[in-house]
Prior knowledge:
Order of helices and strands: EEHEEEEHEHHHHHHEHEEHEHEHEHHH
Strand content: 15-25%
Radius of gyration: 27 Å
CATH superfamily of the largest domain: P-loop containing nucleotide triphosphate hydrolases
CATH topology of the largest domain: Rossmann fold
Oligomer: single chain
Number of strands: 13
Amino acid sequence: xxxxxxxxRRYKMSLPQNNTLPISSDESNxxxxxxxxxxxALLTGAGRSAIAVIEIWGPRAADGVATFFRTxxxxxxxxxxxxxxxxxxxxxxxxAHTAGESIVVVPTAEQCFELHCHGGPAAIRRIIxxxxxxxxxxxxxxRFSAIPASALQSLVDDVDRRLADEACDVxxxxxxxxxxxxxxxxxxxxxxxxxxxxxxxxxxxxxDAADIARQAGAIASAGRLGIRLAKPFDVVLAGPPxxxxxxxxxxxxxxxxxxxxxxAGTTRxxxxxxxxxxxxxxxxxxxxxxxxxxxxxxxxxxxRAMLAIANADLVVQVSxxxxxxxxxxxxxxxxxxxxxxxxxxxxKSDLSPAESIDSSKDALATVATTGQGVxxxxxxxxxxxxxxxxxxxxxxxxxxxxxxxxxxxxxxGQRPDAMLACLTRGEQxxxxxx
Length: 434
């Protein structure tokens, strides 16, 4: 990635094998926002990866790296050079050498380094904790540090800068290619370009306000997906006890996340399992069986299941052949989640195929233990959650603030002056830009 640092000078860093140069606390945490602070930030996105990148910058960055980085040579590094070595706690005469983590260090500018390590959370946490022990403050990635120079040159005002900053933040938290592609389109200017074009059009022809309002309405319709780029869709599996909800979860994620037994009541809490299907992140939620019960613990599990249903993006109603749902349970689901879409599934359909077909014409038939119908279930879930992928490069609101703003523009088709003010401001009426 590009490190947009104003200094292009060659930079020499000495890498002693034994000496340590700690960063004093009076130059870091005691002055959290001063120029004396040395900081670090995780540049790679959320989730596991093969490689993670941590940036460290500030007046004592070189000293901080030298405290923990061990290499086979003490030769100085130029900016842009790559040096392989081991990250380990400093040693002393009365302290045994601690186990190290293999890393790559790259100086990107004066007092600015990238540390490339294993992408697992343990390796990342170790390096950040070691830096914290010498008062290097962990912060969010530097504003615009991940934005290409060409994109920075197109930022014409504070609204543009905020939109780019928000896109950079969302992109860093995306966990799949599909979601990252939408965020990257906004980082490259999708929503910003539409805003500027709309401002120019209205300044010349206020009669085009209705057309811009229609465009805003189409953009706002993509907001339901855009605001979920950094958060998986919540899919709740609900149904009577012992119909195979836990087995379906295990079949969809590909491992035994939920305990399964042949008797009812095994699941008494809401268990989450994160997975990705067809490029979209899903959080599958296994819930307690829904039925009338006087057992206090079971009742708590059922109450938590109903709360999960109320907050779900999709409810998968699981049953089995010949089993009739308790009408009170169906009524309760409709009350707590009246606007939540639902999908009916007949699991264990191999037990009585005829009954499973007759149970519901719209239900999907699955056999969790063999995987039959599981792929079709996942495909149907994605179709219901994601109507369609926005065209490449198209503007998409990627957080609630942007979604509300675009939705307001869509309502101002008969008020071109108010629309122009809203576009220029980059906010809903009455909200100040921070």
